[in-house]
Amino acid sequence: MKKNILAVSLVFVAVALWARVLTTSDASDLEAADLESKLVSVEPPGRLEAILVGRASRPTDIQFIPGREGTAVVLEKDGRALILDVKTGETSELFTTAVRTGSELGLLGLAFHPRYLENGRFYLNTNPADGTMRTEISEWAVSPEPMRERSATKKRVLLEVTQPYANHDAGQLVFGPDGMLYVGFGDGGSASDPQGHGQDPDFLGGMLRIDVDGSHDLPIEGPGFRRGRYGIPKDNPKMASWPPETFAIGLRNPWRYTFDPKGRLIVADVGQSAFEEIDVVSPGANLGWNSREGRHCHSPQKGCATNGLVDPVYEYGRELGGSVTGGYVIPARTSSVGEYVFADFSSGRFFALDVVDWSGGPMGRLPISPSTFGFDQATRTLYVADFSRGGIYRLKRSEAKSE
């Protein structure tokens, strides 16, 4: 293999498969010597490569700024947000916010308002440092163009939910094609959901769907929560005694999720001790936790109730990894709709599934801890973050042969 091939091996692309080999100059001469050089075999034959485009400390989210090609906001677990130019690797600080950082707590997710270019608003999922241990969904604002260093300010809190433990907080925020904000909550933590939130009628263990531009006449406070101003979509499913914000239930830790080109919500739900799963989530769905882990009984381990539970479209066991990191749907030669690309935080394996029939599986492995993905809609390019070493990589699949 040529010496000038960047020293790491993944990269994907969300456009046609490129045939050339990328050199260190394509990565803006960023140093990548801390990663082992290796060639990853994929099917169909080719190579996965990863080009280093920037760095952050314990990155948790990558969101490309609307209207700014090649520029993303990268969140760091400890509470800092960076503006990253993926062409040059240059970063500047957008803001810092005080957060708890133990276990899985921190600055976890960001979503730009669908009309961000008009109103400059975006939304954060955090665990604030003050007061009770909780998840806070808040609205921030910035002058949309250009987004400047230290220019973001917090405007209001939409929702606060108390967290009983410091793990399984989920963290993603995503606006759907319907303009509604989807907010995933884990089961509140510890092992095997000891408080039963996966199937209890509260906010934890559920996927919420809210209208950030609306209002409601619901109680402002209740056991373990405090509401701010937002609306309840009229077409939200009616789910017995669950909060009216609820879109789906039975989730353990939906750390990352996305929508495919058909508008389907795809959730990567982190498993307990045996299986990781990918779910297609429809309104009112019960994904099964903590009765089931994947398609398998968890509590009890045999004879669990399965009536009305929705099976995952894909699952994998501990031989392939131990903590799924959801990704994005990208264009693919083999699918009329695209491939859903995701990874495993524990093993560094990457997966690709055809979103028509959900065929596919593992496609390569990298010596990184994939904590989150980013997708640049303008260039249709996929990126991944390495939590352990802090690298931000552009991903591409190439059919170029090694020499």
Describe this structure in words.
The protein has 403 residues and is an all-beta fold. The protein is built from 1 helix and 28 strands. The longest helix is centred in the first third of the chain and has 4 residues, at 116-119.
Quick summary of this structure?
The chain has one helix and 28 strands. It has 403 residues and is an all-beta fold.
Please name the defining characteristics of this protein:
single chain; 403 residues; mainly beta; 6-stranded antiparallel sheet; 1 helix; globular
Shape descriptor: globular
Structural class: mainly beta
Q: β content, as a range?
A: 35-45%
Gyration radius over CA: 20 Å
The helix-strand sequence is EEEEEEHEEEEEEEEEEEEEEEEEEEEEE
Q: What is the number of E strands?
A: 28
Per DSSP, the total helix count is: 1
CATH-defined fold name of the domain at 54-326: Neuraminidase
Instruction: Enumerate the spans where pLDDT stays under 50 for 5 or more consecutive residues.
Output: 1-46
- CATH H-tier superfamily of the domain at 54-326: TolB, C-terminal domain
Span of the ends, CA to CA: 4 Å
Q: What CATH architecture label of the domain at 54-326 applies?
A: 6 Propeller
What is the residue-mean pLDDT, rounded to a whole number? 88
Binned, the helix content reads under 10%
Largest sheet: 6 strands, antiparallel
CATH class of the domain at 54-326: Mainly Beta
Strand order of the largest sheet: 6-7-8-9-14-13
